[in-house]
Design a protein that fits this description.
The protein is mainly alpha-helical. It has 5 helices and no strands.
Length: 107
């Protein structure tokens, strides 16, 4: 997660000291709706890359998705350590597979 922390730090620096021509600054200037739109687009592109079985595209799209998630986290003032703490909390759970409602398709 060291790379994600470094990415988040760079995003924070762009937010605090905007640089002309910076894509990150553009996202912050456009606001939450634009950030959410891009996150949605990257989610869709990640799904398509996975369905197409292109490892190279999958990695690129996952990186794009992670970047836009980091921008959203920063916009919402949620530091990576809080997400990591939530992941650690969830890792402590055992037997947490949700039971799904079974539909009887014979009737």
């Amino acid at each position: 997660m060291q790379e994600f922390e470094a990415l988040y730090k760079t995003i924070s620096q762009r937010r605090e000291a905007p640089e002309e021509g910076s894509y990150t600054c553009y996202l912050f200037q456009q606001g939450l709706d634009k950030i959410l739109k891009k996150l949605g687009e990257e989610s869709t592109e990640t799904i398509i890359a996975a369905k197409n079985h292109s490892r190279r595209d999958q990695i690129g799209e996952l990186a794009d998705l992670a970047f836009h998630a980091a921008v959203l986290m920063n916009y919402l003032d949620i530091p990576p350590v809080e997400v990591e703490a939530e992941l650690a909390r969830r890792a402590q759970k055992q037997n947490n597979l949700k039971q799904f409602h079974v539909v009887d398709k014979t009737t």
